[in-house]
Structures are given as structure tokens and as C-alpha cells.
Specification:
This protein has 659 residues and is α+β, with helices and mostly antiparallel strands. It is elongated. It starts with 15 loop residues before the first helix and ends with a helix.
Length: 659
């Protein structure tokens, strides 16, 4: 049997000096952020104040949801017939905890500071065949137990020996939770193949730290659980158990407790206290220890190589080709020759012709800026340590609230762009900006939630929470979008540097490799390539219940992603204009936005190779949630690429002399 061891200013009204001062300020701010990225990769600010316990003081052990990487359907602890206290009390959860399916409750375990307990009987439970089958099903689906003591989650300690290529040291890694039981096999002594066994004895190991000069009492800095499966036998008329006692602790060699058919199970536990030199502020380090920092650095180097390649290509275009074109086009003696040669200048009378469905494009760009603002601010807070794992649900809550607050950016950008495209019905465009993207996400999420309800999982969001989300949406987000659109539409129209011809120019025939579909798909490869290594760790954190807290690396990779999206969109847009194709508006958005398609395809590959799904509902949930993530990624990267092309096109056509 295997031993289971122990998160209005208008440029025209500003002077050149003011603009340069603003640019210098932005550059200094960006440089400071980049310098902070690496030092803050492992930086942690505790999310709660420390609690000092005196000897003999009671300590609460709270139980949380049961989780599985095979089903991704969490269940409340008392959905299984465990030992229950006289009254089950729920801890108040925040919005993020409810969305994650956390259900934190009290437990009958008695723990006192520095008081050790051996083979304490918790309760005696008699199970019928149906209850035993329920345990067996959850064990077969690899469900794990999640307990909490002093805001620390229970963990399983895994000791990783040093490899020949690494320094000679022993690394201790904590895995989230501990298993509910195990399946017997011929290779495990004392078990029958195919029979499920429950861990009914738990050795609770609590680590504490004291500093008499700094505070009174002791602080808990570690919480480990070592589970055992023991088929207990009563000692006789005197009470107690013959299988364990204070003098004879439980070992893994004891006959295990099967869960097959009607039977009686004795639930017992030990409490061990160990002194630790780890200080309270560093107690999360063992949970967040990154054993693969070299891979994260490789991810950054890989992304930087892509950025350097694109930067070199862009520099060649800007400094050589584009500069040569501008000099030729602006040379009075060579105007006739330039006109005969062709090039991007020939479409100056059509390049600013409004595209098809300008309102929809404005909505997409505005929503993409909203998602971008939410992502940037969330990662900055995470790097600063405000979204630490100690604050359960803080990350999800921050995402929801920041997306709501960034509605003002979505309304402002969509209104400005729509007005630049000579749109007039800004109210309808603003309404679409406020409801289209959140509406699609809400419909998908609500549909998935119906399936979770059908499985009677605690991951199902209650109706009350849905009303809270609707209140955030229509009570705060929609008014903010309209507020941003009001100010955006009042701003002066962004005038194009060249006039648009009355009659559209005919676009010449192009080779197959310059067709829109092919160029768009090629353009999305590089932004995805810049993040796909880090994406592996993010997916593992979400779907394999691993801790992810290297937000410093993530922020740096995200900045590289933004640069990559901007540069690849500009390069592809320049090639398109050189081919005398002026339909650049939608293609500029789709070129970098197509990386969302690659994200979705990669997520399917990840599911096929790294995950084991045992229920059809689990596959549906995975695909649905990754579809939401990919759609959001499409919006974000598409908006970045479009805005970069918008500025680029205005810059180059504003620099050329047109008669």
C-alpha cells in the first residue's frame, strides 16, 4: 500500500514639451515595473494577521470541499457520511470562494495548542451498502480531502531526492490536500485488487514557532496530514481499540479498512506538535515552492527570442524600407516614378475608409481593452502580494470587480473608435459593448452551472450569487460603460491624415499565401508561441489543483505578449498595405486575436495528454471554461494588435505628402 505522506486632453492642445514629459514619465514607470518583476517573483504579503495561541488553547480544524482532478466537481465534506459535530456551521465565504465551490464548515476534531493526542476515537459509524458504495465511488475518482487550520490548508509532504545534475539537497514539496482513500492492488500487501480502502485514521502534524521577545504564545506555521487505513477492532468491555493506543501508534502495516458492503468504521486521529524555525510570514513558502524555476526562465528566454526577432523585423521595416518609401514619396522629382511602382502610398485614398460592421469592431476593441485593463491591474496586485493564497477567493473576486470597474475603459474606447469610423448610433454601440461579451460569458457559465447542479456538486453557484453577479453587471458595469462612452463620444473626432476617395479602389489579386485566412492564422502563431510554456503551468494550476504563485514571471511574459501582438500586427499590416490591400481594419484585430484559437486547441491537447476525465460532464465543463478563457484571450490580443496598427497607419500616412 503506498504511504501517503505527509492562487480633453487633445494632443493638439498640448505643447511638445508636455508630451515629451509625459512620455518620459511613462518610460520611467515601465522601467520600474520591469525591475520589480524578478525580485517579486517569490515575494509574499500575508493575507491575514497572525494569531498567537497559548498552551492548551483550542484550535479549530475546519473542513472544506472534496476535490478531484478526474471530475472537477467539488463536493461538501458532509455530503459523505463522516463524523459530524452537534451543529454544522458554515463559514461566510466571499464571492470568489463561492465561485470556486468552497464550502468551509466546522468539524468535531478537538485540537489544543501543544497538547498531543494518540489514537483518539472521533466516532463510530455504521454504513449500509449504499453509503459504502458512495465512499468507494469517490475513492475511485481520486477525491482529495481539504482541511484548514489557522487559515493553512492541509497538505501532503512529498520528499524529492536530489538528482545527479542538481545540488545535493532534499526538497520537501507540499501537495494540496490528502487522498480520501486508495484502491487495492496485488502489489500492495494486505489488500485485494480492485477493492477501495478508506483512510479512517489521520495523523495531524502541526508545526509552531515561538519568539518570546516578539510575541507571547506560539504561531502555527505548518499543517501536515498523514492518512492511514486501519481496520480497527474494539478492545472489549473496557472500551477503546485493540488496534492502536497511546503506546502503540498506527502504522501502515496494519490491515486496511475496506469500503465494500455494510460495515462499521471507527474514525480516529493523532495530533503531533513539532517546533519549526520557519517564521509566520514565511509559512506559505513550502506550498509555493517552485521546483521548476529554470523552466520559467526558459519560457521568458523563448518569449524574448520571439520579441527580438519581431523587433528586428520591425526595425528593418521602419528604418530602412519605410524610411526609403517616405523619402521617395516625398521627393518631388520622383513622384511620377513612385506612382508607377506602386506600394502602400497608392491606397492613401482608401486606407481610412470605414470597414464593414464598424459598430461590431468598436465593440470588440472596447471589450478587449476592458479585459486588458483587468488583466494588467490584477497581475500588478498579485505581484505585490495582495492576492496571496492565504486570501482564498481573492483572485476570482478581484477579476470580477476589476472587469466591472474597467467598463468605463470599454465604453470610452468603443465610443472614440466608433466616432472615428463616422458612426452615429453611439447609444446602441455602447449597449452592445456593455452586454455582448458579458452576456455570452454569462449564458455559457449559466448553462455549465446547470450541469453542475445536476451532479449535486458544491461547485454549483447558488441563485443568490447569480443575482449578485447580475447586480454587478447591470447596476455597476453597464452604467460605467455608458459613462465612458459619454466622455469618449464628446471628445473631438480622430481625423485621418488623408482624405478618402469617393470611389473605392479595386484591390489587386494576391497569391494564396497573402489571403486573409492564411495570414491571420500565421499572425497568431507568434503571440501564442511567446506564452505557451507559461500556459502549461497555468493550466496545471487550474485543472490539476497545483499552486501557482510566480506572478513575477507571469507579468514579464504578459508584457512580452503585448509587445509581440503589437509588432506582429504592424508587420502583417505593412505587408498587406504594400500589396495595395486597404482592408486592414478587421485583419489587424484578427491577426493577433487568432492566438485565442491556438490557446483553445492547445487546451484540448493538454486535456488529452495530461488529464484523465471519468465523467462526460467533466469534459463538458473543461471545454466550456476553456472556451470562455480563449474568447477572452482573443478579445485581449485582438485589441492590442488593432490599436498598434491604428497608430501605425496614422503615423505613416501622416508622414507622407499627398497632393
Amino acid at each position: 500500500r503506498p504511504q501517503q505522506g505527509v492562487e480633453d486632453f487633445s494632443p493638439s492642445t498640448r505643447s511638445l514639451a508636455q508630451r515629451r514629459g509625459l512620455l518620459r514619465m511613462l518610460l520611467r514607470t515601465s522601467s520600474a515595473l520591469l525591475l520589480l518583476v524578478v525580485p517579486t517573483a517569490a515575494f509574499y504579503l500575508p493575507g491575514v494577521a497572525p494569531i498567537d495561541y497559548r498552551d492548551g488553547e483550542s484550535i479549530d480544524l475546519k473542513v472544506n470541499k472534496l476535490t478531484s482532478t478526474k471530475t472537477h466537481l467539488p463536493y461538501e465534506w458532509y455530503d459523505l457520511p463522516f463524523c459530524r459535530p452537534a451543529e454544522v456551521v458554515y463559514k461566510g465565504e466571499n464571492l470568489g470562494e463561492v465561485m470556486r465551490g468552497d464550502r468551509i464548515q466546522n468539524s468535531p476534531y478537538t485540537i489544543k495548542m501543544n497538547v498531543e493526542v494518540s489514537c483518539q476515537l472521533l466516532c463510530k459509524q455504521s454504513y449500509d451498502a449504499e453509503q459504502a458504495a458512495l465512499f468507494a465511488t469517490k475513492i475511485g475518482e481520486d477525491y482529495r480531502v481539504n482541511w484548514i487550520v489557522d487559515n493553512l490548508p492541509a497538505a501532503t509532504r512529498v520528499v524529492e531526492p536530489a538528482l545527479g545534475s542538481s545540488p545535493s539537497r532534499i526538497i520537501t514539496i507540499y501537495e494540496r490536500g490528502f487522498p480520501l482513500g486508495f484502491r487495492g492492488a496485488e502489489s500492495i500487501p494486505g489488500t485485494s485488487a480492485g477493492v477501495n480502502y478508506v483512510y479512517n485514521h489521520h495523523r495531524i502534524v502541526l508545526k509552531y514557532h515561538t519568539e518570546p521577545d516578539a510575541f507571547e504564545g506560539a504561531r502555527i506555521v505548518g499543517f501536515e496530514v498523514e492518512p492511514f487505513s486501519v481496520q480497527h477492532e474494539p478492545a472489549g468491555a473496557g472500551g477503546g481499540l485493540s488496534t492502536c493506543s497511546g503506546a502503540r501508534p498506527v502504522t501502515h502495516s496494519a490491515p486496511p479498512q475496506p469500503v465494500s458492503g455494510p460495515q462499521t468504521v471507527y474514525w480516529t486521529y493523532d495530533v503531533r506538535w513539532e517546533y519549526s524555525e520557519v517564521k509566520w510570514a514565511s509559512r506559505w513558502d513550502v506550498y509555493l515552492y517552485a521546483t521548476d524555476e529554470q523552466i520559467h526562465w526558459f519560457s521568458i528566454v523563448n518569449s524574448l527570442m520571439i520579441v527580438l526577432f519581431l523587433t528586428g523585423l520591425l526595425a528593418m521595416i521602419m528604418l530602412r524600407t519605410l524610411h526609403r518609401d517616405l523619402r521617395r514619396y516625398n521627393d518631388a522629382e520622383a513622384k511620377e516614378e513612385a506612382a508607377e511602382e506602386g506600394g502602400w502610398k497608392l491606397v492613401h485614398g482608401d486606407v481610412f475608409r470605414p470597414p464593414q460592421r464598424p459598430a461590431l469592431l468598436s465593440v470588440y476593441v472596447g471589450t478587449g481593452v476592458q479585459v486588458l485593463g483587468m488583466s494588467v491591474v490584477t497581475m500588478c496586485f498579485a505581484v505585490a502580494g495582495f492576492l496571496s493564497p492565504a486570501n482564498r477567493g481573492a483572485l476570482m473576486t478581484a477579476l470580477l470587480l476589476l472587469f466591472t470597474a474597467m467598463g468605463v475603459l470599454a465604453g470610452f474606447v468603443s465610443a472614440r473608435l466608433y466616432k472615428a469610423l463616422s458612426g452615429s448610433d453611439w447609444r446602441m454601440t455602447t449597449l452592445k459593448t456593455a452586454v455582448m461579451f458579458p452576456g455570452i460569458i454569462f449564458i455559457v457559465f449559466f448553462s455549465l452551472n446547470m450541469f453542475i447542479w445536476g451532479q449535486k456538486s458544491s461547485g454549483a453557484v447558488p441563485f443568490g450569487t447569480f443575482f449578485a453577479l447580475l447586480a454587478l453587471w447591470f447596476g455597476i458595469s453597464v452604467p460605467l460603460v455608458y459613462l465612458g462612452a459619454f466622455f469618449g463620444y464628446r471628445r473631438p473626432k480622430i481625423e485621418p491624415p488623408t482624405k478618402t476617395n469617393m470611389i473605392p479602389r479595386t484591390v489587386p489579386e494576391h497569391a494564396w499565401y497573402t489571403q486573409p485566412v492564411f495570414s491571420v492564422l500565421i499572425g497568431g502563431l507568434l503571440p501564442f508561441g511567446a506564452v505557451f510554456i507559461e500556459l502549461f503551468f497555468i493550466l496545471s494550476s487550474i485543472w490539476l489543483h497545483q499552486y501557482y504563485y510566480v506572478f513575477g514571471f507571469l507579468l514579464l511574459v504578459f508584457l512580452i505578449l503585448i509587445i509581440t501582438c503589437a509588432e506582429i500586427s504592424i508587420v502583417m499590416c505593412y505587408f498587406q498595405l504594400c500589396a495595395e490591400d486597404y482592408h486592414w481594419w478587421w485583419r489587424a484585430f484578427l491577426t493577433s486575436g487568432s492566438s485565442g484559437l491556438y490557446l483553445f486547441v492547445y487546451s484540448i491537447v493538454y486535456m488529452s495528454t495530461k488529464m484523465v476525465m471519468t465523467r462526460g460532464v467533466s469534459i463538458l465543463l473543461y471545454v466550456g471554461y476553456m472556451l470562455i478563457a480563449s474568447y477572452s484571450f482573443f478579445m485581449l490580443t485582438g485589441a492590442v494588435g488593432f490599436l498598434a496598427c491604428f497608430l501605425f497607419v496614422h503615423a505613416i500616412y501622416g508622414a507622407v505628402k499627398v497632393e
